[in-house]
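Retro notes (design track)

What went well: tokenization of the new backbones is finally stable.
What didn't: we kept losing track of which sequence belonged to which structure.
Fix going forward: every design gets posted as structure first, then sequence, in one message. First example under the new rule, 248 residues:
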């Protein structure tokens, strides 16, 4: 789908499940690629189209300008928050996406972008799932920069990711600003993976998977750019399980 935004031609790709009918309101997942990347790349890596067909939700893949989004530390100067706001508006009006069940996920640059959207589009997202992305950069360093409406988070961080120290610091800051408190002790999973859960002051939740053997990529992806087939968990399965129990 094409649209003119900010004086430029922009585009996005929509995937509908086989049971889709424009009279039915379905959840929407906004999926954002890494840099450099495109919609086809992130669709292949995540397998979200097959997941959507099985679980009956819509996926929209906004195309970054010059293969990138203007996220928290990279890349470009485009108003990608405004662009994605426009894409979501078209999805809710033309494709009948359920505005109470809008979610964002992304890898690397797209993961960073999901945090930016959670803060800068209040009331839009019920939850986000950054994969190998972080709440980082100059904006994130400002103590006032945080969501003003509840947005739950599930994130996947690789111990061998070159950005792990930044990502760890970022998710810690996020939880401090939102007065999040741990929910029980960390869970120990296979391959040394840990899962921590917290509930925040605004009622949102934060689940953090730390995967010591994973690099900078998509946990569980069997193919595509930045795939991590041996990560030990499947981010696509887990993020959808998280999304479907977190409406607004």
């Amino acid at each position: 789908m094409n649209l003119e935004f900010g004086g430029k031609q922009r585009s996005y790709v929509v995937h509908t499940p086989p049971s889709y009918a424009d009279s039915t309101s379905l959840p929407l997942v906004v999926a954002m690629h890494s840099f450099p990347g495109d919609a086809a790349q992130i669709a292949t890596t995540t397998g979200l189209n097959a997941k959507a067909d099985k679980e009956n939700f819509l996926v929209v893949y906004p195309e970054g300008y010059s293969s990138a989004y203007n996220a928290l530390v990279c890349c470009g100067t485009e108003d990608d928050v405004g662009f994605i706001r426009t894409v979501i508006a078209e999805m809710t009006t033309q494709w009948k996406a359920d505005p109470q069940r809008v979610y964002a996920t992304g890898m690397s640059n797209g993961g960073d972008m999901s945090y930016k959207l959670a803060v800068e589009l209040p009331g839009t997202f019920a939850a986000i799932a950054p994969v190998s992305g972080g709440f980082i950069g100059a904006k994130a360093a400002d103590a006032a920069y945080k969501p003003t409406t509840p947005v739950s988070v599930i994130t996947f961080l690789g111990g061998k990711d070159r950005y792990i120290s930044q990502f760890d610091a970022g998710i810690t800051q996020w939880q401090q600003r939102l007065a999040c408190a741990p929910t029980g002790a960390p869970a120990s999973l296979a391959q040394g993976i840990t899962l921590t859960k917290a509930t925040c002051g605004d009622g949102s939740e934060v689940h953090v998977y730390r995967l010591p053997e994973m690099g900078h990529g998509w946990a569980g992806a069997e193919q595509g750019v930045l795939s991590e087939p041996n990560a030990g968990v499947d981010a696509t399965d887990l993020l959808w399980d998280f999304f479907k129990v977190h409406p607004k």
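Added context from the reviewer: The CA atoms of residues 6 and 135 lie 26 Å apart.
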